Amino acid sequence: MEIKDFVRDRAIEARKGARALLRATSEQKNRVLTSMAEGILAMREDLKAENEKDIAYAREKGLSSAMIDRLTLTDKRIDEMAVGLREVAALPDPVGEVVRMWQRPNGMTVGRMRVPIGVIGIIYESRPNVTAEATSLCLKAGNAVLLRGGSEAINSNRAIVGVLRKALAGAGLPEGVVSFIDTPDRQAVMEMLSLEGIVDLIIPRGGEGLIRTVTENSRIPVLKHYKGVCHVFVDRDADLPMAEEICFNAKTQRPGTCNAMETMLVDEKIAGEFLPLILKRFSDAGVKIRGCEKTREIFGEAEPAEEKDFYNEYLDLILNVKVVRDMDDAMDHIATYSSFHTETIVTENYHRAMRFLREVDSAAVMVNASTRLHDGGQFGLGAEIGISTDKIHARGSMGLEELTCTKFIVLGTGQIRE
Amino acid sequence: MEIKDFVRDRAIEARKGARALLRATSEQKNRVLTSMAEGILAMREDLKAENEKDIAYAREKGLSSAMIDRLTLTDKRIDEMAVGLREVAALPDPVGEVVRMWQRPNGMTVGRMRVPIGVIGIIYESRPNVTAEATSLCLKAGNAVLLRGGSEAINSNRAIVGVLRKALAGAGLPEGVVSFIDTPDRQAVMEMLSLEGIVDLIIPRGGEGLIRTVTENSRIPVLKHYKGVCHVFVDRDADLPMAEEICFNAKTQRPGTCNAMETMLVDEKIAGEFLPLILKRFSDAGVKIRGCEKTREIFGEAEPAEEKDFYNEYLDLILNVKVVRDMDDAMDHIATYSSFHTETIVTENYHRAMRFLREVDSAAVMVNASTRLHDGGQFGLGAEIGISTDKIHARGSMGLEELTCTKFIVLGTGQIRE
């Protein structure tokens, strides 16, 4: 069969699955998720055996040890997959919620009901646990998935998909709810991205290169999760001990994440007092500083920051530091260099706090809190499929609600248009 | 200058305009909209003179009279533009609304604030009044626009844009808030669609061909308004006089609109009683019927419906009629042939009404109301930029809220990630 038809058939299978899910109750979906968790644990040895094949092939191909690490299904990761499935089962179901309902002068009632999106295409790289994780969130929100994992994980993914589909069949739901593009052919991704009208949304999970390829080639809307170049601005009226804790946490608590701080902006009025303290603490913690001229006057250890550094997502113990004239200067810097993921102001000044909240155009804008707190769990969304730096459909942490859309419902009593 | 750079410069001008709008108050925006309305009326003769140039050229090129009609700025249309601008000024401002706000166990407050999207690209065809109409809605929601009208209306559009920009300058806002791609070069549209990161959203306004070209070529999210193949299903438990009024209204009240009924589905249990009455009434009103076999047995006047007819948006006094076994059969038909715009069930049966509401996957699903009521004004949204048949970002009637997005705001007191 040609690759085009093969991918299309899988997508149509998912479409039929999506239609069946429109009738599924929360209880049914939760039973399936629980039975998927049981299946994952019951098939542990099989999953590991299939995973071994992928690892052997990856070694043969000379893939990096980081890549092989991401690929490996350890006992811990298998346990985590099962725990994740059960956690999603325990979350409240977003589907069916009537977001708002109002009455019109002619007596008809109009409302917005939260409903599944339909078929969500997930395109991901080497981590096979994404197969269970992404599926669980989409399914809970009533969506079928069309999965396309990394070719290096194909045996592991096929085995996991087998377990998930068996649980669906056991609950009387079509296996097509979890459809898997079981081919290493790279053309399959391009075919998937052209299935407008069958696939409703594409979520790429992986590095910037993958996301860019998907965005540039998709005719289907894409929920993107780009890089995080996050800023903390320490205002002249900051509580400096608080600023120190927030900045230190934002940079060092887990530097490899998208919500870690990459650039610290400091008002010139307090730079002389604040920078020696915090930069010494960063330095002691192994953080390398790239500073503007004024920063380097205060802290000689800092290397000079070049302009391109300010665009950089280091994901590492490296920090840009820049002394700014005032908050407007800081906001200009953010408007130029930010990836509009998360920005924080540390201040006790009410007027500037309110202006920063309103005028900074990022997915999350914070006053007196660490950028590291921008996260579905920390925000109380329950689960997170990613953090969108886009503005369309979803922005910032995406939970189950972002995997739904709304439709208008009208309860009439015979109304017609006059 | 190369077309690529020209379009990019206009877009960057709009981007700067968008940033300035982040600080604009509702009062400022309303003053600008009112002054735009005054400008349109004051410049009436100039607008008509510029419009004459476009009409003369259109005649020379031999454009159809329907096209020339759409292009023409009559006094009435100029008045309507001014009225529209004032109406939008009077609507509540969606920006700044905090949609929800909650507290986390660590004491930080998390909320979602409604904010402008940024720069919205409007690509439209021959009607020059779209220039003022689309701009007013985008501007009220805090967005800058990048306008690309039909080349046949370029003189009219340039003149209208001149009036709008003058009003902005008068209010101390940058003229770039309304940016206009003042060239008939067709390549300009393609360049516009590649400006990811500068333009946030594209709204095409026009026929299916335009929308398809835009969707297939855009790297920027597109808000689409495709065709409406809308259905009314008359259930076996319908109140038949009510069903007759709803069906008649849905088809004939204004047949050229996207929310008019194109196919009527009738439960076989009541077809014998219902069809003779309604089809006679349709026939008397000049509606041509294309019926399934059973319909033709009951109503000999009907022509046979071919399968392709069921996909058709007639926008005319033509109606498909099909007798179905039951509601499931009707829902199967809808799932196959609908454009998922608007569907209605007429029934007094509670169970089937609830199932239809939940299981039909269209932008608006109605019980006992005419499909013609799916409209921003009728729903009480205040104004409408279109009706989305997409599921991402906006679905169904799009008002001012659909021209905004939300961002997370966090009010902290020094919270860090543990």
Note down, in words, how this protein is organized.
The structure is a homodimer of 418-residue chains. By secondary structure, chain A is an alpha/beta fold. Chain A has 2 domains: 3-92 and 115-226, Aldehyde Dehydrogenase, Chain A, domain 1; 230-378, Aldehyde Dehydrogenase, Chain A, domain 2. Chain A contains 15 helices and 16 strands. In chain A, the strands form 4 sheets. In chain A, strands 10-9-11-8-7-12-13 form a 7-stranded parallel β-sheet, sandwiched between helices. Chain A has a 4-stranded parallel β-sheet with strand order 5-4-3-6, with helices on both faces. Chain A has a 3-stranded antiparallel β-sheet with strand order 1-2-16, with no helix packed on it. In chain A, strand 4, helix 7 and strand 5 form a beta-alpha-beta unit. In chain A, helix 5 packs parallel to helix 6. The longest helix of chain A is centred in the first third of the chain and has 19 residues, at 3-21. Chain A is globular and about 70 Å long.
Feature tags:
418 residues, Aldehyde Dehydrogenase, Chain A, domain 2, Aldehyde Dehydrogenase, Chain A, domain 1, 7-stranded parallel β-sheet, 4-stranded parallel β-sheet, alpha/beta, homodimer, globular
Strand segment tally of chain A: 16
CATH H level of the largest domain in chain A: which superfamily?
Answer: Aldehyde Dehydrogenase, Chain A, domain 1
Task: Give the strand order, joined by hyphens, for the main sheet of chain A.
Answer: 10-9-11-8-7-12-13
What would the CATH topology of the largest domain in chain A be?
A: Aldehyde Dehydrogenase, Chain A, domain 1
Report the span from N to C terminus of chain A: 55 Å
Chain pair with largest interface? A-B, 68 and 68 residues
Characterize the overall form of chain A.
globular
Number of domains of chain A: 2
What portion of residues of chain A is helical? 40-55%
Report strand % of chain A: 15-25%
Largest sheet of chain A: 7 strands, parallel
Q: Which second-level CATH architecture of the largest domain in chain A applies?
A: 3-Layer(aba) Sandwich
Number of helices in the DSSP assignment of chain A: 15
